[in-house]
Specification:
With 302 residues, the chain is α+β, with helices and mostly antiparallel strands. The chain has two domains: 2-123 and 286-296, Probable inorganic polyphosphate/atp-NAD kinase, domain 1 (Rossmann fold, 3-Layer(aba) Sandwich); 131-285, Tumour Suppressor Smad4 (Sandwich), CATH 2.60.200.40. Helix content is 31%, strand content 34%. The chain is built from eleven helices and 16 strands. The protein has helices spanning 12-15, 17-30, 45-55, 67-77, 96-101, 107-112, 140-144, 150-156, 159-168, 228-239, 294-301, and strands spanning 2-8, 33-39, 60-65, 85-90, 118-127, 130-132, 135-139, 175-181, 184-190, 192-196, 218-223, 249-254, 256-261, 266-269, 272-276, 279-292. The longest helix is centred in the first third of the chain and has 14 residues, at 17-30. The chain starts with a strand and ends with a helix.
Length: 302
């Protein structure tokens, strides 16, 4: 019998993980897996559990929790010699990775779709010794996301991040960046720098409309002017997938980048506090095999 490790964050999704636990176990049994359960209790637990599954040559790692739990699990699978198939049930506020892969944001639907799922190779990225699947952000707008409380996320969802971002725009602070990339370098002052791996960032699925989870590229968005009028204009273009055409935004498609600033600047990585500049970012192309709905895999292969 195949072996699966089921990593659960019991506090995710308004503590709804327990509600879906038995449904997942039943589905995994139908799929022919003998399952071991691991529950997280502290930061880093999911990474350690996923690493254990690699060392013990499990066939599947299943994670259930918010964006942080999914990120930690991916970190435990990254660059391992024996890497199991990966799947997850999203219980987070934004769930960008699930959106990008066509996984339902409704837990019951995501669980029901597991048996028909097909493996898909997807990119992740490595920066400063950490891994991410969705986004790395730098600048005052990125730092504003740290001010979002769990209560705000519960009540407002992704809109909570937008509200904090609007508050940050009242300041005039810009940062001088030097960014080396595949095609040369970018130098100048900017309010925000985003390195996106997928089309969904902060719940907005049209930030990088042409980005694919397996294209081997990161999509760097350098926002040079984020004053209120420019922000309003960019928000409208973001909703229709035309942010690349905004005059205040430079876009760089690259497989790697090195980011430097005059003063050390902290980044936000997949929604969590990261590390300070300078650092290098590298895409690990098609690094993970993730179980996704068959219709998503078919669309990507067309």
């Amino acid at each position: 019998m195949k072996r699966a490790m089921f990593i659960i964050n019991p506090s995710s999704g308004k503590e709804e993980a327990g509600t879906y636990r038995e449904l997942v176990l039943e589905e995994l049994k139908k799929m022919g897996y003998e399952t071991e359960i691991r529950e997280t209790a502290a930061a880093g637990d999911a990474t350690a559990f996923a690493g254990e599954a690699c060392k013990r040559a499990f066939d599947l790692v299943m994670a259930m929790g918010g964006d942080g739990t999914i990120n930690e699990t991916v970190a435990g699978l990254a660059e391992q010699d024996n890497q199991p198939l990966f799947s997850f049930i999203p219980l987070g506020t934004v769930n960008d990775f699930a959106r990008a892969l066509g996984i339902s944001l409704k837990p019951e639907e995501a669980i029901a779709a597991l048996e028909a799922g097909v493996p898909k190779e997807v990119d992740i990225a490595k920066a400063g010794g950490r891994y991410f699947m969705n986004i790395l952000a730098l600048g005052s707008l990125a730092e504003a996301t740290y001010q979002v409380t769990p209560e705000q996320k519960t009540k407002l969802g992704a809109f909570a991040y937008l509200l904090e971002g609007l508050k940050a725009l009242t300041g005039d602070e810009e940062v001088y960046f030097e960014i080396e990339h595949d095609h040369g370098s970018w130098k100048g002052e900017a309010k925000l720098v985003l390195a996106a791996l997928t089309n969904s960032v902060g719940g907005f699925e049209k930030l990088a409309p042409d980005a694919k989870p397996d294209d081997g590229m990161m999509h760097l968005y350098v926002v040079k002017n984020a004053a209120i009028p420019a922000f309003i204009r960019m928000a409208g273009e973001l909703l229709v997938g035309r942010l690349e055409h905004d005059p205040s935004v430079d876009v760089i498609h690259t497989s790697k980048a090195t980011v430097r600033t005059q003063e050390p600047l902290s980044c936000n990585i997949d929604g969590e506090a990261g590390f300070e500049t300078p650092f290098a970012i590298e895409v690990l192309p098609r690094h993970l095999q993730v179980l996704v709905p068959p219709e998503d895999a078919e669309q990507e292969n067309r």
